[in-house]
Design a protein that fits this description.
The protein is an alpha+beta fold and about 160 residues long. It has one domain: Immunoglobulins (Immunoglobulin-like, Sandwich). The chain is about 20% helix and about 50% strand. It contains two helices and nine strands. A four-stranded antiparallel sheet has the order 5-4-8-9, with no helix packed on it. A three-stranded antiparallel sheet has the order 1-2-7, with no helix packed on it. A hairpin with a 2-residue loop joins strand 1 and strand 2. The protein is elongated and about 75 Å long. It starts with a helix and ends in a 6-residue tail after the last strand.
Length: about 160
């Protein structure tokens, strides 16, 4: 019986210590798309630069472990990627993350086909991203949509 009581006390101690590590009062950082533009491409495969602006409203630094993202252009999912080379956002600070992505040509066939039928310089986009800020905290989900222009991107 005493052994059982010790196990219960040990489990309770571990649970309380684990909850303390979850950072009570943690506020979800704000993530917005600051830029989305086409880059000069090499060959037929388009490249894009995606800028994210992150605001950390917490008293501790935000250590970004990684990001997973996908981009849909004109209804066609053409970009997916990951990045682990991310900056630390200081306490009560702001920072920018720039992602460079190259389209998967096979996934882009539908988009290329529609562009050949009807050329255009402006495209609608949707961005979905998940930022990993540590194993004990939930991932931050970002969704944004808008338009980009390819005018002046080819040099």
């Amino acid at each position: 019986m005493i052994r059982f009581a010790r196990i219960v006390v040990l489990v309770a101690f571990v649970a309380v210590a684990g909850c303390a590590g979850l950072q009570p009062g943690f506020e979800t950082p704000t993530v917005g798309v600051s830029s989305f533009r086409a880059l000069p491409s090499e060959g037929m495969v388009p490249r894009f630069e995606i800028g994210l602006h992150i605001v950390n409203p917490n008293r501790t630094a935000l250590k970004l472990e990684g990001i997973v993202y996908s981009v849909i252009l004109e209804g066609h999912k053409i970009l997916t990627g990951v990045s682990g080379d991310l900056p630390e956002i200081g306490a009560y600070g702001e920072g920018d993350v720039t992602l460079t992505a190259t389209a998967d040509l096979l996934s882009s066939i539908g988009l290329l086909s529609s562009l050949m039928r009807q050329p255009q310089e402006t495209f609608s986009y949707e961005l979905e991203a998940r930022l990993d800020i540590g194993s004990l905290l939930p991932r931050i989900h970002v969704q944004d949509q808008g338009e980009i222009s390819l005018a002046g991107a080819s040099k």
